[in-house]
Design a protein that fits this description.
- This protein is mainly α.
- It has helices at residues 11-18, 21-51, 56-94, 100-122, 126-132, 140-150, 154-169, 174-196, 206-228, 246-278, 282-300, 303-319, 323-350, 352-356, 363-377, 380-395, 399-412, 414-455, 476-481.
- The protein is built from 19 helices and no strands.
- It has one domain (17-456).
- It is globular and about 60 Å long.
Length: 482
């Protein structure tokens, strides 16, 4: 029977609710930070080799135009990862263990199918798609070449993201780190050969960067599949677990769909930025892209790992109704990332010209790059606590609240600021739109956190007066009966 498989809660999973919170979050954060840092560095490596091409600025602009589309593919993976991390961690906390394999199998099957569907849609429509995302006439060619190649890796990308969510949900952040490192290392090693044509390889330019990415994704997905099916993963998947069930998908979508929508929204907003910045020339778009890539590295140095500790810890504690520990985990995450963000912002702003120098090889890009980076980093220490609030709500299974907070900051506040400031202050105003939205978003986040704090105050309550997450968790027998 499907429901007969029983899982034992391993020590690393039980630690989410029992171990000392500070050391636990350090233990879970460090692998996440390393993995995210490596992934961010590989994006920089891609950009470095592409910037060395004769058409370097146009190639960087093409990558920047495609960044929102890659964010959409990444959004699906992020949604699946967030949904399954929250779901399995809450089920572990509730000790509803026989639901874990069903959730894992459904998430994996859904990831593979979504990747195929996305590739089928994108590849034949590559040219109109890149133009929709802001490609100007002089960068349509390289944009199409990159997109039609990288689309073949969508299924592998989503599979890795989803399985990483499974591992994190059980308190294992070490294996996701190894998978990210292996993929990034392969990608970085292949870049000079495929982009610049080292040795016997042809010079493929920007298309070589896409091919290196696909090869790396295939290798990482293969390694993840081997580990998932081994006894070490903590999961015991069978073929029947891959059969998609509506109830399970709805439970994953409770957090996953809003998380995906948040990332899709960010990609749409990024496209709006590209359209606005396109009026100031390719260098403005390229400067925006470089500042985003540098910021990804800065985020990965702390916040990119801390959130991987916060989501499963908050989810497990919420499922166990240990609200005091849940709120303590948020306070630790917000304090770490905000204080660390202030220091990182100061360093990046001070050294902005030196950071941009290896990539900004043309005078206009060298002028705009540091400006874009400094303005983006100026409010970084205010952004991090807001992001930790998003991940807290995800861990609690409240995807709607997480999405509301993200939409407020990344769309409702930033888009009006973008048009207003760019109209009055030109390209400087456009670059300043995000920090303005970060300041205003702090008040939105504070209000939403206070409401949740009053709803789930930091004392452990009995099951009789427990308020269910939004929507209420599905009863265990519903899954088993399907």
């Amino acid at each position: 029977m499907v429901g007969s498989t029983k899982l034992e809660v391993r020590k690393q999973t039980a630690d989410l609710g029992n171990a000392r919170l500070g050391p636990l979050m350090v233990k879970l954060s460090i692998p996440g930070m390393v993995g995210m840092l490596v992934m961010s560095l590989y994006n920089i490596v891609d950009t470095f080799w592409v910037s060395g091409l004769p058409e370097g600025t146009h190639a960087i602009a093409a990558l920047t135009v495609l960044f929102p589309l890659q964010m959409i593919a990444g959004a699906l993976g992020m949604g699946l990862s967030a949904g399954v991390t929250s779901l399995v961690s809450r089920r572990f906390g509730e000790t509803r263990l026989d639901q874990v394999n069903r959730a894992a199998g459904n998430a994996v099957a859904l990831a593979l199918e979504l990747g195929v569907v996305l590739a089928i849609i994108v590849i034949p429509l590559a040219r109109p798609v890149v133009m929709l995302f802001g490609a100007t006439a002089d960068i349509v060619g390289p944009s199409v070449a990159y997109l039609t190649t990288v689309a073949f890796g969508f299924s592998f990308q989503l599979f890795v993201a989803t399985t990483n969510g499974l591992y994190r949900g059980s308190g294992n952040t070490f294996v996701p780190m190894l998978l990210l490192i292996s993929g990034a290392a392969v990608n970085a090693a292949l870049d000079p050969f495929l982009i610049s044509g080292w040795g016997p390889f042809p010079r493929l330019g920007i298309q070589g960067a896409a091919l290196a990415t696909v090869i790396a994704q295939v290798i990482a997905a293969s390694l993840s599949a081997v580990y998932l099916l081994s006894r070490h993963s903590g999961y015991q998947l069978r073929l029947e677990h891959l059969h998609l069930r509506k109830r399970i998908l709805l439970d994953i979508a409770q957090v996953g769909a809003p998380a995906s929508a948040e990332s899709v929204l960010r990609s749409v907003v990024a496209s709006v930025f590209n359209w606005v910045l396109g009026g100031f020339g390719p260098a403005a778009i390229a400067a925006q892209g470089l500042s985003l890539r540098v910021m990804m590295i800065v985020v990965s140095c702390l916040g990119g790992g801390v959130h991987q500790a916060l989501v499963p810890t908050a989810g497990y504690c919420f499922g166990a109704r240990n609200y005091r520990r849940m709120w303590q985990s948020y306070r630790i995450a917000a304090l770490w990332t905000s204080s660390g963000g202030l220091l990182r912002s100061a360093l990046v702003c001070y050294f902005a010209p030196q950071i941009m120098a290896p990539f900004a090889r043309e005078p206009e890009l060298a002028r705009l790059g540091p400006l874009a980076l400094r303005l983006r980093m100026s409010s970084f220490f205010l952004m991090e606590p807001q992001m930790m609030a998003v991940f807290l709500f995800q861990g609690m299974g409240m995807g709607g609240r997480a999405m509301t907070l993200t939409v407020s900051r990344n769309a409702l506040l930033v888009v009006p600021a973008l048009f207003l400031l760019s109209a009055h202050f030109g390209v400087t105003g456009a670059f300043a739109a995000q920090p303005v939205a970060d300041v205003l978003g702090l008040f939105v986040a504070g209000g939403m956190l206070w409401k949740a704090y009053r709803q789930y105050p930091p004392q452990e309550r009995s099951g009789e007066d427990q308020e269910e997450p939004e929507p209420a968790a599905l009863p265990e027998q519903v899954w088993a009966s399907e």
